[in-house]
Amino acid sequence: MKHCSEIDNKIIFACVLCIIICFTQNARAVEIQQVISSRGVKAWLLEDRMLPITSISFSVLSGASADPVNKAGLSKMVSLLLDEGAGELNSKEFKRVLENRSIKMSFSVSKDYFSGSLKTLNRSRIKAFEMLKLAITEPRFDNVDVERIRSQLLAEIASKRKDPDHIAKEAMWSINFPDHPYASKTLGTDRSIGAITKYDLHDYVEKRFALSNMRIGVAGDITPSELAALLDSTFSQLPKLQVKPIIESIQPSVRGDVYVYRLRQSQSNILFSHRGLPRDHPDYYGAYILNHILGGGSFTSRLYEEVREKRGLAYSVYSYLLPMKYSALWVGGASTDNLTASQTIQIIQNEWGRIHKEQITQQELSSAQDNITGSLALRFDSTSSISDILVALQRRKLGVNYIDERNKKFKSVTLEDLRRIAKKWIDPDFLDFIVVGQPEGLKDVKTLNPK
């Protein structure tokens, strides 16, 4: 068994290398196909006949923000239980099949989506899809497994209470989206996790997993006709329509405040947030470039230069756009010594203001465009990442030709566009900071209390 696993790993490594080489040499040769099965199940496929593996990803528009208020963490709990037994197979039997066939199956949850993925060598493909069907249509939720996963979740919740990054992120959600489902805790609370019943778990699967809000992406060595048959056998039994949760769109409640959560540690973990752009906004590509210049360009960004290179205040500093289904944020962060937290925040505020007021150079624009367009192939490093991308393209309604059109959109952004977008979307007076640690030198802060 160990020898077979080593051979499988070598095959997978060779396949990944083939994907990167082929995509890098001829990105325009990539053809995304829309596959519709005889029973109406839809998927996007990126086919590569050289690869002996197939990966499938799917997501349903029903994430943690759709959990009932008193059952926060329900989506997370379901995601941890779907591979803990299904059909006639208990947890150990189910996982033994996956292991013996070298099948990788996983499920995850975000604020907006419940997602699943499957990766298999082609010799086990039919069995792999059968196992996925069992997981999403006949999960067992045996009492012993439910209580074990409940205990694991409660232990994770307890450990996260001392995790500075987690504390900062939870505070960001509650501050920016008060009284909105985005403020609910993805992991849940002690009380909400304790209140989840076996009925809740089954009800979740029956009502939320529906074809109307499911997006499926597939990559690897599989033809459209082969995929169509597997789509029917795996997904066609799901309900056609989903009972959609009612969630309203919301603007983040940023005010330009600094919040401090006192935690005994030598470092201050800093998270900052600002209003962002919807993914379908015409200014998004320009804003993406602007963010690359500001803090998204790793070793080339202004924040990295000012915070890390010139002053050595933090090992890393970053920013990124976070478009969501019902809102959008512009987020960033850094970790620094408690003694230099105030200085680090001041520099970030200064750079936020500088990019708003001062002109961006042609060199900065050209460099950012080259980095963004040149890095596209690196995202296609495995069939799993490709299938994930295909799902994301569908969720964002970007079209099957997006990969060919993407770089043109970034290259078409001008200096005038960037200056206009910086003036319109960046406001240094409305940049919130959340600091977890024992920072010194900060004034006019708002204290966050443990909950």
CATH superfamily of the largest domain, by name, is Metalloenzyme, LuxS/M16 peptidase-like
String of helices and strands: HEEEHHEEHHHHHEHEEHHEEHHHHHEE
Number of helical stretches of at least 4 residues: 16
Stretches with pLDDT under 50, minimum 5 residues: 1-28
Q: What's the structural domain tally?
A: 2
Radius of gyration: 23 Å
Mean pLDDT: 92
DSSP, total strands: 12
CATH class of the largest domain: Alpha Beta
**Neighbour order of strands in the largest sheet:** 1-2-6-3-5-4
The first-to-last residue Cα distance is: 48 Å
Q: Oligomer, anyone?
A: single chain
Overall 3D shape = globular
Q: Strand share of the residues?
A: 15-25%
CATH topology label of the largest domain: Cytochrome Bc1 Complex, Chain A, domain 1
Quickly give the structural class: alpha+beta
Can I get a quick summary?
This protein is α+β, with helices and mostly antiparallel strands and 451 residues long. The chain contains 16 helices and 12 strands.
What topology emerges from the helices and strands here?
Layout lengths: L1 H24 L6 E5 L5 E6 L5 E8 L13 H8 L9 H10 L3 E6 L4 E8 L3 H13 L5 H18 L3 H13 L13 H6 L2 H11 L5 E7 L3 H12 L22 E5 L4 E9 L8 H13 L5 H8 L4 E10 L4 E10 L3 H17 L4 H13 L8 H13 L6 H10 L3 H11 L6 E6 L8 E3 L3
Parallel strand pairs: 2-6, 7-11, 7-12
Antiparallel strand pairs: 1-2, 3-5, 3-6, 4-5, 8-10, 8-11, 9-10
Helix pairs in contact: 2-8, 4-9, 10-13, 10-16, 11-12, 13-15
